[in-house]
Amino acid sequence: MKYPNTAKYVLGTIAALLLAACSPSENQSESTAAAEGSKRVAITTIVEHPALDSVREGVIEELKEKGFEEGKNLTIDFQSAQGSTANAAQIAKKFAGDNPDVIVAIATPSAQSVVATTKTIPVVYAAVTDPVEAKLVPNMDASNTNVTGVSDELPLAPQIELMKKIVPTLKNVGYVYSPGEVNSTIVLEQLKSQLEPQGINLVAAPAQRSSDVLTAARSLNGKVDLIYTSLDNNVVSSYESMAKAASEMKIPLIASDTDSVKRGAVAALGVNYHDLGKKTGELAVQILNGAKAGEIPSAHMENLDLLLSKKNAAAQGIVLPDALVAEAKEVFE
C-alpha cells in the first residue's frame, strides 16, 4: 500500500512520538531501579478481630523498624478471608500467582491454605496453636521446606491454675469452640486430659459459625462454674456475644486472648499478640534479607501477660481476689 507524502509525514511523526514515549527517561530509569530494589510482602488472615489485627500491625511495625517501609521500598498486599476457608483458598491462589518475596499467613486456616498452594514462595505463619498438627511444618525445628513461623500455643497448666484462683470450688468448665478449627479441637482434647485428673469436668459447646456463638454459650447455663475461651476465631470475632451470655448467666468468662478482657472477659492469661506479630516480622525480615524460610526454626512466645477486669467481674457475679489483682500486669476498672 502506498501513502501520500502528507500521510507519510503524519505517520512518521506519530511513530517518533511513540518511540519517544517508549524510550525510558531518566526518571523512569530511577523508578525502575527503585522498583527492582523494593520488596513485596503478602499478608492474609482468616478473619479480622483485635488479636489478629494486632499480629498484622506488629508484623508491619517490625518490617518498618528493620528498614522495610510500605510506600518506600516495600509493597504490602493484605487480604482477609472474612471468616471463610473458601476465601482463604482463593487468596492463597492469588498470592501464589503474584509471587511475592514472602507470604505472612495469620491463623491456622489461612496458613493451611497458603502452604497447600505454594511449595516455593517463603511462608511465615503466625498465631497458629499447633503448626505440626496443622501440617504446616514437620516439627518446630528448621523445616527444610518453604515454611517457618510463630506459634501462639499456651501451656494450659497456668490457665487452669488461673481458673481455680477465680473459682476455688471449680468443678465444671464450659468451652465454646468451632469444631472445624483444628486449633480449637486440639485445645479441647488438651483441656480434657488436664482437667479430668483434677476432678474437673469439661462441658463442650460447639459453634459452627460466629452467629452460633451466643446460642452455644447460653446452652452452658446451669451446667458450668466458668467458661474458658481459646483463640478460636469464630468465638473471638464475636466475643461480645460471649460476654452478653456470661453476664446474663452470671458465669465468669476466662480467656487466653488478652485483648478479650477489653471485650468482656473477667481475666486472660496469654501472649501479647502485637509482640507475636513483631516476632513474625523478625522472621519475615530474615527472609527479605536473604535467609531461606526452611532454615529458620519455628518459634514460640515465651512470656504470658495476666489482664483482669473488675467491671466485667462485677457484671458476671464475682469479686476478683486481691492476691490475683496484685499479680496482674493490667487491671481494668
Report on this model:
- With 333 residues, the chain is an alpha/beta fold.
- The chain is 44% helix and 19% strand.
- The chain contains 13 helices and 13 strands.
- Helix 5 (108-117) links the parallel strand 3 and strand 4 (123-128).
- Mean pLDDT is 89; it is low at 1-35.
- It holds the Pfam family ABC_sub_bind.
- This is ABC transporter substrate-binding protein.
- InterPro entries: ABC_transpt-TYRBP-like, Peripla_BP_I.
- It comes from Neisseria zalophi.
Features of this protein?
alpha/beta; Rossmann fold; 13 strands; single chain; 2 domains; disordered N terminus
Strands ordered across the widest β-sheet: 7-6-8-9-10-12-13
Distance between the termini: 87 Å
SSE string: HHEHEHEHEEHEHEHEHHEEHEEHHE
Unreliable segments (pLDDT under 50, ≥5 consecutive)? 1-35
Helix content: 40-55%
Overall morphology: elongated
Q: Given this structure, which CATH class of the largest domain is correct?
A: Alpha Beta
Beta-strand percentage?
15-25%
Integer-rounded radius of gyration: 25 Å
The named CATH superfamily of the largest domain: Response regulator
* Subunit arrangement of the protein: single chain
- How many distinct helices? 13
Can you give the mean pLDDT? 89
What summary fits the major beta sheet?
Answer: 7 strands, mixed
Number of domains: 2
